[in-house]
Amino acid sequence: MTALPGLSTPQLASPALLRSVFRRHAAGVAVITAQSGGSPVGFTATSLTSVSAEPPMISFGVGARASSWPVISETEYVGVHILGEHQRELADTFARSGADRFGAPTGWREGPEGVPVLDDVLAWLVCRIVARVPAGDHRLILAEVVLGDPSGAGRPLLYHQGRFNGLRD
């Protein structure tokens, strides 16, 4: 491999390279929720993307080995929650393997289409899954927005350099 002038030596593609590069990319923090048979599941996601305005559509990634995947793989609807900077602990809880994500102190209620809706978020959506696309060790979920509420107050929570952070001016 040839070094480029003014740049350090490039690295070959690897999971470590991808993780290292994306630690430098600040991303908004969301929690995705779903429910099956009265059992809610959820996970923290930084891969949330607006895909289309007409129709309103979003996407996110979920690990094929994630504990939430069996429910996400079969459910029709998901909840998408945009977290505020006051919700670092909630983001940690939904990111931690084996955590009781819906136990105290997590506040939530059953929302439209049976989707768990988290309390005190900046905004939330209920979306109907329209596609599940295999993508390496993850699945890319495409979902059409059914309804939502953008009226929460506060500033967004961000993920950068492996940590949850508030937005600075």
TrEMBL record:
<dbReference type="InterPro" id="IPR050268">
    <property type="entry name" value="NADH-dep_flavin_reductase"/>
</dbReference>
<dbReference type="InterPro" id="IPR002563">
    <property type="entry name" value="Flavin_Rdtase-like_dom"/>
</dbReference>
<protein>
    <submittedName>
        <fullName>Flavin reductase family protein</fullName>
        <ecNumber>1.5.1.-</ecNumber>
    </submittedName>
</protein>
<dbReference type="GO" id="GO:0016491">
    <property type="term" value="F:oxidoreductase activity"/>
</dbReference>
<dbReference type="Pfam" id="PF01613">
    <property type="entry name" value="Flavin_Reduct"/>
</dbReference>
<keyword id="KW-0560">Oxidoreductase</keyword>
<feature type="domain" description="Flavin reductase like">
    <location>
        <begin position="22"/>
        <end position="166"/>
    </location>
</feature>
<dbReference type="InterPro" id="IPR012349">
    <property type="entry name" value="Split_barrel_FMN-bd"/>
</dbReference>
